[in-house]
Design brief:
Number of strands: 15
Radius of gyration: 27 Å
Shape: globular
Largest sheet: 6 strands, mixed
CATH class of the largest domain: Alpha Beta
CATH superfamily of the largest domain: P-loop containing nucleotide triphosphate hydrolases
Helix content: 40-55%
Strand order of the largest sheet: 6-7-8-3-9-10
Bound molecules: adenosine-5'-diphosphate, magnesium ion
Strand content: 15-25%
Number of helices: 18
């Protein structure tokens, strides 16, 4: 199991002047609405327990008012819990004094806001360099590092522009560069792309995912948009009325929704565009070593399989069928050279391919299609029936 960088335990947040009264109603099992009616207190979060691992993009998804911002603001203690604990890198945030908290916010964690929150009277490079100024870095280094991030997010030439001179998408690139510039381990993004037009938004999503491949930061990404959640998230938590309904990978959420609320969320998702080959491939397959003279047929018989996948020194070569071997030697022992002649090359897939793009290959192939990694190893096979099963129950969209 990967390390938990952020750990939340039994977290409750009540908004109002009488949290004790609300907590009693919570314990008595009343709903958020009932508690508001009875006590005029708002249940922001209710018994949140979760772990966010080092290097993952963890998405918190839910409708407006479900508690997303309240939750993420606990991670840098912009909000204090009513009860419960938050640990970041095994540090209990509630134990930090003002000094430590200031350092923690400067160095460990950075945030990208929905409305960009740039300083209007500072230009692009100064907005980005500001976090480093607070860290007391020398001027040359501040500007060098800021310039580097300006180049990475594609704002070269805009260094001296002011926020009001930039489009929404450009402003959010500044926000992203500013957050990344401090080298903080954790990046918090609260609906960072929600205010942007769809095209610009898709563009920034893509850029974030490309960056993340290199940076491997721990990113907590908030969105109310399920498509965005499924696209960017390694894991997704679904929040409703301050409670977590389910935490899992896209395939868990889509294929095994925890309850009727999650099911309602995912009903209209086009699975063929979200799920990948990895989500449906099976590891069970018969590997045939061509140097194991004569072994091929026995191996197939032993595994009661009609198809073998020929693998030579970890490298996938192709498929052999039991029928072709039997025809070839009329039951006699297969020599290596003979086996090689029987190998059918056939199509292959990559595990990151979305099902939509794997559909034709899988349906047209006579055999379960091997999934091959970049180094040429076989990782698994895709059965036609698994693909169809996952895609049926999918709306025609
Ligand atoms: N400062 C506050 N005072 C009172 N209620 C609040 C406050 N902040 C949030 N809430 C309430 O807590 C709930 C969760 O809000 P929020 O975390 O902002 O949701 P989201 O970010 O998912 O839209 C809502 O019912 C909201 O009205
Ligand atoms: Mg919010």
């Amino acid at each position: 199991m990967a390390d938990a960088l952020i750990r939340v335990e039994n977290l409750y947040k009540i908004f109002g002047d009488n949290p004790e009264r609300a907590m009693k109603l919570v314990r008595d099992g009343f709903s958020k609405d009932e508690i508001l009616t009875r006590s005029n207190q708002t249940v922001g979060l209710r018994d949140i327990n979760l772990e966010i691992y080092n290097g993952e993009v963890f998405v918190i998804m839910g409708l407006s008012g479900s508690g997303k911002s309240t939750l993420i603001r606990h991670f840098n203690r912009l909000i204090d819990p009513t009860t419960g604990s938050i640990f970041v890198d095994n540090t209990d945030l509630m134990q930090l004094d003002q000094n430590d908290l200031a350092l923690f916010r400067q160095q460990k964690i950075s945030m990208v806001f929905q409305r960009f929150a740039l300083m209007p009277h500072r230009n692009v490079i100064d907005n980005i360099a500001y976090g480093l100024k607070v860290q007391n870095l020398p001027r040359d280094e501040r500007y060098e590092r800021s310039q580097n991030w300006i180049d990475i997010v594609g704002l070269s030439g805009y260094e001296n522009h002011y926020p009001s001179q930039l489009s929404g998408g450009q402003q959010q690139r500044v926000g992203l560069a500013r957050a990344l510039c401090t080298d903080a381990e954790v990046l918090l993004m609260d609906e960072a792309f929600s205010a942007l037009d769809p095209l610009i938004r898709a563009n920034l999503q893509g850029q974030l995912m490309d960056l993340q491949k290199r940076l491997k930061k721990t990113i907590v990404f908030i969105t109310h948009d399920l498509d965005e959640a499924l696209l960017v998230g390694d894991r997704i938590a679904i929040l409703k009325d301050g409670m977590i309904l389910q935490v899992g990978e896209a395939k868990d959420i889509l294929l095994e929704p925890a309850d009727e609320h999650v099911e309602a969320f995912v009903r209209n998702v086009n699975r063929a565009r979200v799920l990948t080959v990895k989500d449906i491939m099976k590891d069970k397959l018969v590997r045939i070593d061509p140097s194991n003279t004569g072994g091929a047929l026995q191996q197939l018989q032993k595994n009661e399989s009609d198809i073998g996948y020929v693998v030579e020194k970890d490298s996938y070569k192709g498929v052999v069928t039991r029928a072709s071997i039997e025809r070839g030697q009329a039951g006699s022992v297969a020599a290596e050279s003979q086996l090689n002649e029987l190998v059918i090359k056939g199509p292959t897939l990559r595990n990151s391919t979305i099902l939509q793009d794997a559909l034709a290959t899988t349906m047209e192939s006579e055999f379960p299609v091997p999934v091959i990694c970049e180094q040429g190893k076989i990782e698994g096979i895709v059965h036609r029936k698994d693909l169809l099963e996952v895609l049926s129950g999918n709306p025609a969209s």
